[in-house]
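Practice problem 4.
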């Protein structure tokens, strides 16, 4: 894809890609599906080779979900810490896949574990990106009661990302659940205000508020469709749903 002359040039110089843990397990129901991991690594590799600085936040829901476990009686803080460890497992697995694809990577963890990852330091993360390395942020924010969506929004702003790319298993943001309603309508773009009014569940409320209050656009797209990560980086308006401050700003990524 990187050498395809028909592929539009990147619309962004630095992005943060949020990958849910569930997206890595495919139809297996648990764990990591190697084929999906390889697909994601290849897409990131292609986008990075085009000069885009890429940081990644990966969830842990394919291994452990803190919120659901706490609902079963486990202490919420303890459950969230276990969930953070699950994100580290996914981050190290993604690092291995990326390095097999030829990329130089760094895993930065919000929880110190020197044998697996570097500690998260904002300036260090930015320096790695400037050197062309793919940076994978693990262990969420390092604090319980915050999701990896919130970690993605926070890290994106800390490193100065121009957009938060949220890779999912659906095409974008719909007016209602497309898995339950055949007439669900896909949005091309929507403002933060309208998303709140319609309760569209783009991401958790804390993460959404961080992006809205700091003017960080969000692009929600199907990560599993071949080429979509590259198209998202290129600002292709036919990929997913763009969430922005105003309708006027929705035009900034047009190609």
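Answer key:
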């Amino acid at each position: 894809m990187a050498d395809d002359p028909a592929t539009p040039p990147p619309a962004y110089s630095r992005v943060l890609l949020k990958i849910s843990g569930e997206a890595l397990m495919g139809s297996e129901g648990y764990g990591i599906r190697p084929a999906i991991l390889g697909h994601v690594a290849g897409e990131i590799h292609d986008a990075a080779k085009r000069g885009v600085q890429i940081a990644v936040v990966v969830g842990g829901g394919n291994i452990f979900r803190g919120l659901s476990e706490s609902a079963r009686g486990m202490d919420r803080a303890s459950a969230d810490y276990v969930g953070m460890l699950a994100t580290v497992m996914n981050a190290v697995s993604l690092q291995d896949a990326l390095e097999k694809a030829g990329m130089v990577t760094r895993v930065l963890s919000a929880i110190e574990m020197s044998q697996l990852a570097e500690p998260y330091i904002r300036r260090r993360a930015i320096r790695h990106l400037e050197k062309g390395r793919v940076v994978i942020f693990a262990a969420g924010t390092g604090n319980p009661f915050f999701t990896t969506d919130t970690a993605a929004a926070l890290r994106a702003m800390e490193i100065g990302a121009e957009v938060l790319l949220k890779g999912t298993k659906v095409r974008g943001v719909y007016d209602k659940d497309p898995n339950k309603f055949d007439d669900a309508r896909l949005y091309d773009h929507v403002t933060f205000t309208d998303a709140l009014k319609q309760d569209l569940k783009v991401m958790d409320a804390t993460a959404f508020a961080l992006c809205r209050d700091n003017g960080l656009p969000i692009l929600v797209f199907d990560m599993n469709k071949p080429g979509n990560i590259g198209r998202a980086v290129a600002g292709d308006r036919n990929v997913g749903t763009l969430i922005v401050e105003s309708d006027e700003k929705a035009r900034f990524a047009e190609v």
